[in-house]
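Think of the structure tokens as a kind of shorthand, similar to the way a musician reads notation: each symbol stands for something richer, in this case the local conformation of the backbone. In the example below we present two proteins back to back. Begin with the first one, reading the sequence and then the tokens, and try to describe in your own words what changes along the chain.
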Amino acid sequence: MKKVFLLLLVILAPFLSRAQQTDTTTHNKVGDLAPNFTFHPDKEKTASLADYKGKIVVIDFWATWCPPCRMELPRVQKEIWEKYKDNPKFALFAFDRGEDWDKTLPFKEKNKYTFPMIPDADKKIYNLYATQYIPRTIVIDESGKIIYQSMGYDEKDFKELLTLLADKLK
């Protein structure tokens, strides 16, 4: 019995210690004010996050080459954008991390996405929130506070995101 316990301990130890580690790749935590930034929703316009105060803002960081992003984006289109795009309290911006319009627009058109997909070629916006890993989703409330963050794509986190949005955008 003692040998079985020790064997289990040896097998599980790396997972248990990892679960207790702090995520050092995320600059902000839930409850923090979201860092303000300017961006170009299209090639001509300039906007800032502060322009959307009073709305629930979903920020999604992704890239054309990222397999989990390619799994998440169709759901963002169907289950978030199509449901809330006409809600005056809602905004969504999907920032293509490390790529420019020459990659972002063809990808958007090929996949028939209609939500705002914006290049973050120099990662200036991404670097305000994190150091690595995509997809990343951040939800900011009407007062500018971060109320949700996820890293990667999995069913449980996406359902949590949908539940939060349904509650906030009634």
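Once you have a description of the first chain, move to the second and do the same.
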Amino acid sequence: MNTYLSDYVDIQGGHPFRGSIPADPQGNAYALQIRDASPEGIADWAALTRTSLDAYKNIVWLRPGDIVFAARGQNNYALCLDEVPVPAVCSQYFFLLRVKSSALLPGFLAWQMNRQPAQRYFAKHAEGSDQIGIRRGVLEALPIAVPSIEQQQRIADLDKAAHEERKTLQALIHNRELQLDALAFALHNHSTR
């Protein structure tokens, strides 16, 4: 039996900002944009643009467990929001996914959407000439696997551990580069005396 993303997830477009997001230091909301999210699964909450949203419009606030999917550009990736520390919406360049079935874990789904089978599917179905992207219908028709909750949790935990390892390794590499730069400066200063 074929299983598709739309069988397990409600999908909606991001908040429909017109043009660039107007910054408002006293605003009632923050806007998550493509530049604030990374394919490595990190949302830079401190970098979000604070803005004002019309309280009379239907605002779909981000909440823990939501998945935002970057639908525009070359990199189409899913980011599972473990936390949402500020009142925030995602911009129109994302699709907002909310799992509607207890048979599917959001962290597992985001992992699956970021792996090669799904990424090949997105690359094959991307459309556009100036700005390529993924249409909602294409996203809804994404074939997905739904193993047991236990297996999903193990995979999601493994993915989270891999992200932490990558972050630690990048910090070690950065520290080594600083050490090498300090050594180079010391040698340069010593030789110019």
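Compare your description with these statements about the second chain. Strands lie at 9-13, 29-32, 49-51, 67-70, 78-80, 88-90, 94-99.
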